[in-house]
Amino acid sequence: MRSVPQLKPLRLGSVEIASPIVQAALSGYSDWPMRVVARRLGAPYTIAEVMIDRFVLDLKKRKSTLKYLRVTDEEHPVGGQLMGSDPDQFPAAARRLVEAGFDIIDINFGCPVKSAVGGCRGGYHLSQPDVALDIVARVREAVPAEVPVTVKMRRGIDDSPESEDRFFSILDGAFDLGAAAITVHGRTVEQKYIGPSSWDFLRQVKQHAGSKTILGSGDVFSAQACLDMLSYTGVDGVSVARGAIGNPWIFQQARALALGESQPEPTIPEQRRVLVMQRDLCLEVYDERATVTTMRKFGIKFAPLHPQQEDVRNAFAKAKGLAEWQQILDRFYGPVFQ
């Protein structure tokens, strides 16, 4: 029989998070509409999609660009995540995120995509502890003391002993410099998203860190997986990434499961309600074309919850306008399925 962990509040420096299961930064996904939907459906904390430091500094004060810095009252607490190659760029970018209203600054040392690593950003920094820790020090010094600074890492560039040594040098050094928490993804940078995430490594990290706050990430695609990670690894929190795309109910499902309550899959009317909610939020910040592009990819991600998932996925994939998107919604999420 699986053990059911007690879901204790998560503390990130001065910020208390009501539940330890939170939404990760999701490049290309965790924009303002997705974050608001997640919050309304039970996520206690979300992080905006990663922004390159230079991009943040170059943003003009126009509606078309300020959407990237949009933070609204119902989101708090919310994190902003930075990625870059030059330590000199991070402090000013971090301050701008704080000015925009982000409560926590998260530094990305984990992105494994080719463009990031090739540009000496994200996971590349796991190969150079001195530079990584210089970035942490500069960001911690740049933002107000009450604003927590956190770090996202993978378990190394590769599986070599040297890579593991560098990982722990950065982990320990970041905490020594004042990092409030560190999120660790159980895959290496070389793995990208291939193969299993090592929960054994997460358990090792938590044992090493002791009372310091560690969040785990990787292979949490269900409420049960969130609880299993907490139980197996002993981490303080779980950062849900791809498992939250198309399933914003995962946070309330995990809480219900921990309490021994039933946690059924969302009904068709509930799925429709949330899809419409997210579309309407998109229309507040995007034009019709961008809204359709965004909701096309989210419709595809919601499709696995539908009994006709293949037909729904294929229909959303072909949607070219809001009217067509609405027709798909009416066809598959209308009264016939209620």
Commentary on this structure:
The chain is α/β, with parallel strands linked by helices and 338 residues long. The protein is built from 14 helices and eleven strands. The longest helix has 18 residues. The radius of gyration is 20 Å and the shape is globular.
What is the correct CATH architecture of the largest domain? Alpha-Beta Barrel
Whole-number count of domains: 2
Largest sheet: 9 strands, parallel
Q: Show unreliable segments.
A: none
Secondary structure elements and pairings:
Layout: E1 10-12, E2 15-17, E3 21-23, H1 32-40, E4 46-47, E5 51-52, H2 53-58, H3 63-66, E6 78-83, H4 90-100, E7 104-109, H5 114-118, H6 129-142, E8 149-154, H7 161-176, E9 181-185, H8 199-209, E10 214-217, H9 223-233, E11 237-240, H10 250-258, H11 268-285, H12 288-302, H13 309-318, H14 322-333
Parallel strand pairs: 3-11, 4-6, 5-6, 6-7, 7-8, 8-9, 9-10, 10-11
Antiparallel strand pairs: 1-2
Q: What would a concise description of this structure say?
A:
The protein is an alpha/beta fold and 338 residues long. Helix content is 45%, strand content 13%.
Features:
338 residues; alpha/beta; TIM Barrel; 2 domains; 9-stranded parallel sheet; 11 strands; 13% strand
